[in-house]
What we know:
Elements: E1 2-4, E2 16-22, H1 36-42, E3 58-59, E4 67-69, E5 77-83, E6 93-97, E7 105-113, E8 119-120, H2 145-162, H3 168-179, H4 185-201, H5 203-213, H6 216-234, H7 239-266, H8 273-325, H9 340-343, H10 349-365, H11 367-378, H12 383-386, H13 389-395
Antiparallel strand pairs: 1-4, 2-3, 2-5, 4-8, 5-7, 6-7
Amino acid sequence: MKPLLRDTDFVSQVSWFSFVQRSKPDAEDSLNPAPDHFSSDMGFPDQMDTRKPLKTVVPAQSYETLSTEASPTGTHDSYFLTSVPWSHSADMVSVVPGNPKYGFVGITASMQVDGATNSSIDVEKVKEDVKPALPDSTQFPDGGLDAWLVTLGAWLVFFVCWGPINTIGIFQEYYQQELLSTYSPSAIAWISSAKLFMMYAGGAVFGKLFDSYGPRWLLLVGSAMHVYGWMMTSISTQYYQIFLSQAICSAVGASCIYYACAGSITTWFLKKRSTAFGIAASGSSFGGIILPIMAVRLIPRVGFPWTMRIIGFMILGMVIVINFTVKSRITHTPKPFRIAEYVQPFKEPSFTFLALSMTMFVFGLFLPFNFLVLQAQSKGMSRSLSEYLVPILNAAR
């Protein structure tokens, strides 16, 4: 008798199944030795004991297609299934302790399978009663050299990715008054709007790539695109050139770097995760202070092209450090793309309302950054003073 499972890839922090085979349903205490295919395939030797009911773990993702197949001899056999609660009047359900090492608790259900019949377990009815297991805090270092180096790299990531976005008011003013003076303010604002869209929308793609392949290639490709976008902006003179280099190329690269970093830092911290993210996020404000002042001071002295190159070289040095410090603690394995993974979370009202509230929040978040300088100048503030409003605003965040 062999369980049929479509997907037996290991997934952490989920509910687990466990199988026990016995020869006949009326032989309450007579247990057969564990089948060889269990111990050879599942790879949890600390759980294998052929003298006791076998407890072999496979992912709970498999329960949707879980079935049992009768043995070739056609004998009337029985399986115990440790899993989520299975409601059936003809079967006994009881709670059994799970493996303390993984922090899970199982539910045991007994079912009988005839020699000529296949049967499946439908657990859709009880999914709503099953709560996901909490992360095991002992698996997270929550400190140490590697973890804090990742935090340092994350601080630099926020600096190079969100610092330029916090500087968009300086570029809006310069483009509107100098480089793109023939274009309307709304047309120029599309550059910063598209840059923001690329930063956020990239998460749908780069988050999935991080789950499957880890941060390494995302960091390498993102670093190259981000720096290349800044260098191309330095030689751009037309609207479409600035749009492609600053709003598309640089923004997509920054999005790659950001989501690779955000995913990596969560693998190192649990109890101190908020602290680590708080430290890293402060890099955004520092970038929003330093980069506007650099642009304001350098453009009159060396011109716009060399100002972009100087900032680009500074970002290049930072992304080199990022690539050496940011890494994931866990091993990543490729996973198939399923559109349902993007839809499933929205079935939870709390998640849906959180996503909507965050969307509404971001709608107005960067509007002051974009038009603050121009608005101040329209009210009579001098240009030399108004250009420092952006770093002042970032310092107050």
